[in-house]
Amino acid sequence: MExxxxxxxxxxxxGDVVEHGERIALAxxxxxxxxxxxxxxxxxxxKSHERIDEDVSEKTAEQASVGEGExxxxxxxxxxxxxxxxxxLTESYEKVxxxxxxxxxxxxxxxxxHVARAxxxxxxxxxxxxxxxxxxxxxxxxxxxxxxxxxxxxNIQEVGRGEGGETFVFEVNVNDDELKDEVSDIxxxxxxxIDRWHVEAEKRTEDVAAAEGVEPPEEEGGPDSTMT
Length: 228
Fold this sequence. Notes:
Elements: E1 2-4, E2 7-12, H1 14-30, H2 36-44, H3 52-64, H4 70-73, H5 78-97, H6 101-142, E3 145-148, E4 152-162, E5 165-174, H7 177-193, H8 205-212
Antiparallel strand pairs: 1-2, 2-5, 3-4, 4-5
């Protein structure tokens, strides 16, 4: 592993980059990282059973996507918001005829709000569709697969392919300098104290459980179980 101002970097085969991701996830956990940002990275980092051009590509496209707007979060489509906007506009006219100016203005404002929310939802969906297509078809051919949130910034790139297999470079930077120093110290301990790192493998307990007629055990794994 190489350490620099830009992060913790490893170059090697798929097993090497998987191990690198596991070590950093476990080191982060040891520092007390336990929020959404940590679990987002833990989900995105490459796994032993995954492929970079399929699984990591899909996860990168998902995390890079434009987030949901207020209308989508409320479960309303642009059409539904426009319909509500029309109803509120009609209600506003009725209040004007009743000389209820205050209620008329309130309904008119709500109508405008629903129109704006409909436009926002429609534009987000259009951007998301273009984003996904461009990312999958173009960007993954030109740039590394990347991840970015408030906790870490990471990227992985295939840099070679030969008789010995594929070669990758995987770099992860911890965005907070103090936390980065803690992670660096923990990674150094792993290097000096752990003789062999057992890379996690996907556990398929469902098939065995079905054959034996028992309930599958609770799922193990994650960054807590990579070290032996």
